[in-house]
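Milestone M4 deliverable, item 7.
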Amino acid sequence: MAIAHKYAERALQVARDYGLTQWHGYGLVLHGRVLAGQGHYGEGITHLREGLSILLASGAMILHSTGLSWLAWALWHHGQVEEALQVLNEALHITQDKGLLLSTLQLWLLKGEILLSVGRARMADSRGQ
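Output delivered:
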């Protein structure tokens, strides 16, 4: 992850230096994913949201559904399960509308993991009462 972090920061710097808005968005998304993967969920979520916002404003759809899945993953691990599921539903709508089968399957897998974890937590809570 350290190498990915280094390259994400470098990509952001180059994008800022040369005014490459779309690449700045990509860099923020990738940097956010790296930060979240290192356990810095709050900061990662902030970068992911900012990057996705830039990409959406620029009309770039490449990495959009993947970025949304990374955002959902980070939200889930940050304890924001409901918001993670909302983000996944948005991503699923986009991928199904665009016919992105592989992305759709990956999103359903993540949604299943989140719902399974919620179910397990509820079962553990009900047993503890």
